[in-house]
Design a protein that fits this description.
Rossmann fold; four-stranded parallel beta sheet; about 15% strand; about 350 residues; alpha/beta
Amino acid sequence: MSKPRALVIRHGAIGDMVISSCCLPYLKQDGYDVHVLTNERGKNILSGNPNISEFIHLEDNCVPIEELGDYYDEMGKDYDKTVVLSGSIEGRYLFPYPDERYFWPVGKRRKECLGKNYYDETIRQAGYEPNGLRTGQLFFSHDDIIFARNFRQKHRKDFVILWALAGSSTHKGYLHYEEVAREVLRKIPRAFIIAAGTFNEMVLSFQHERVWNTGFEEQPIMRIFALTKFVDLVIGPESSIINASGCFDTPKICLLSHSSRLNATATFRNDFSLEADCACSPCHLLHKYAKWFTFNRVCMVDKEIWGEYGMMIPACTGEGHGKTKVYDRIMEVYRLKKQGVL
């Protein structure tokens, strides 16, 4: 007798793909042969996952967005179970411009979204109650693991911090990175920082003998993800790198903005995440598609003008976290590591 088959459908950003992996063991343990319909980006992130028996490739934008529902229904006809995860977080608990919920009062959005953990809700969307695994899963190639282990061996005496500089949206960043990072390097002589980001995001970093700016070498994303397993601390906004670190015991500090800790990181092991100290956070908004004058109408903004573009920055990326609070949390993790608690 053949095994029942489940089709999992997920198109989205890299961090979304990491989150989606949390439901795959539930399907496999329930006896399903799991097929995943995704794009090349999703296949790259989920490659090597033993819960997946087959990938079905779908190019981005090859099916008009208004026809996707019918397309998913048609693809699911040959399966015993279909789990559609596209839009399971963005659009359900996080609202982009010009969604009407983008303009709801913040209290109304919080009432609908605040108590929902993104990993637990992904598992429930697959038809299960969270029981056991409540984080993502990542599996790496031999080359990526060797690279990460060799890096750790080279820096075996250092306190290594992997710092994600930015995410995919305007509010996924930290305005005071350089000042805090420089103070950490001054205070901890054996600190070493991996500043992770794209080539363009390297403008946020600085040159230092104990800072590796990865974007200048354009390291593959899975290689950066592998490093999250071997470093001493991961810091960053609500980004794919924080999602990746959530798969492992590595201490992590997510500088939260649009989500609460309960939403995003509460199921992580060794989580030291910080919520922003501003009245509009968590807002459950996505400013990815909004111009500065749009989010200026619906959220607080810092006074700083960032860069040559004259762009105002959401308050959660600046004074919402400040300098002292982030520095103190880093030093807390450092002391716990030195004491052997972590």
